[in-house]
Hints:
By secondary structure, the chain is mainly α. It has 4 helices and 2 strands; from the N terminus they run βααααβ. The chain has helices at 15-43, 48-79, 87-118, 124-152, and strands spanning 12-13, 157-158. Strands 1-2 form a two-stranded antiparallel ribbon. The model has no long low-confidence stretch (mean pLDDT 86).
Amino acid sequence: MIENQNIKLKPRLERKRHVAKTITWRIIGSIDTWLISWILIQFFGENSQEAGEAATYIAGLELITKTMLYYLHERVWYNLNWITDKQKLRHIIKTISWRLVGAIDTILLVIIVYYYLFNTTQEAAKVALSIFSIELITKMILYYFHERIWFASNFGIIKPKNQ
Length: 163
């Protein structure tokens, strides 16, 4: 890749920026997962209360697993040193890589919760793949806009002195 001479030096990002991005994304992502899970689990035959309990477990476990995974994903992407004048392309590729990590985590969590609550994994695969299919669209859209908003933010950025 030929570097564009007009690209400014890479600013240093404080860890508090990664933590804040992690928290804001996790709130958005968990609400999305809870709603999709609740609707789909009801669709696959559980009553509203059981669906709500399962959705709460899935979203609650995500708060733990995906918070850690997202923070690590942020740190990896920061250290890639991919500086380009085509930041939108970078955000699209970063969105896809995060969605793959997030999808694997969601599928595993749905199977675990289903086994724990309903003592079966029979419907878990259907529910997990259905959640994955819907989240593939909703989460990528939400994540892309989350990235673009944070890209416009100066929170936690220390710019090089010669800029």
